[in-house]
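Handout, page 2. Input:
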Amino acid sequence: MKYKPFYTLNSLLPFSIMDRYLTKELIPPFLFGVGAFSSLAVSIGAVFELLRKVVESGLPLATAVQVFLLTLPTYIVLAFPMSTLLATLMTYSRLSSESELIALRGCGVSVYRMVLTAVMLSLLVTGVTFLFQEQIAPASKYQATVTLEKALKSGAPAVSKQDNFLYAEKREVKQLDGKKQKILTRLYYADQFDGKRFKGLTIIDRSQQDKKEGFNQIIIADSGEWNPLQNTWNMYKGTIYLVAPDSSYRNIIRFEKQQLQLPRTAFDLAGKSKDYDEMNISQALEQLELERLGGDDKKIRKLKIRIQNKIALPFVCVVFGLVGAAMGTIPQRTGRGTSFGISVIVIFSYYLFGSVTSALGEANVVSPFMAGWLPNFLGLGTGIFLLIRVARR
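Output:
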């Protein structure tokens, strides 16, 4: 095979006959992997549950098919990195076993240059994965949830509902020894939130306790809702208990309707009905800001880790592309079945390590950034190590 590079106007890297040949060989196993891995994942994660709902809950078959198709992009996103690993490992292993890579090295082509084609294609898949993850999968998954709820509730509109809603608002206070401590500012509890109004509402407000004449208040109401025109809470049929700094009751106010100047954070949190898989990165960052207002460090740390995982996921394609190509260039004779088996082992090891680092992040042993990116760094280091070893042979 003659190595004859040529340059395009929009490229700084040579695109040769070898690159076109490798690209042609990489695409079919990649498409096969997308189909195989996404089908397997969606069968385990969605099909069995949908069939159960069809049999037990009377879900219409047409609706089940619609939900299945709307759920599919979520699993395709997960299949992209796996398919990249399978395609690079299968292609380079076959070329190695048929001595085509040896012939290329005999023509003066380095291992690094051969693997560069796989890495560049992996970067392209990274962009496609990011597009699917941010623009297609979250909206599709949310629509699937709404469609399923609507069908199971006989056409009733899907709204954000919660039972036993609890939200603690905290703030940092500097102690005499200089250390900062978070104390409770307000506590909200409701028996139910129907998407617009809290029912069975109790609010403990301690925001004024540090002021000399400040009163704490306990508000109990049958219901409460947010008034967007006046930026206040509208409370219905309840009682306000005013508590003095010495913990004695100073006044009891009964009302049919009362407007109170309280933050709307509780409504924002209760109205966030989307699951994490139904949010893109920008929506997850908005949710993070709301969680920060609540001051729950555990929830904040967990959400930070999930955001880092979401950012790091598309770049797994580059890691798997490098690892698969480096492993494939090792002189060996392996069939497609062996390549598929090795891919499954690598994928399982990667995601197992990712679960461990996420757990360490939630335990505050490592930072959220390291919890999300450490598997990528380890995989990248492994790929570079394997590539250097092969190049030295």
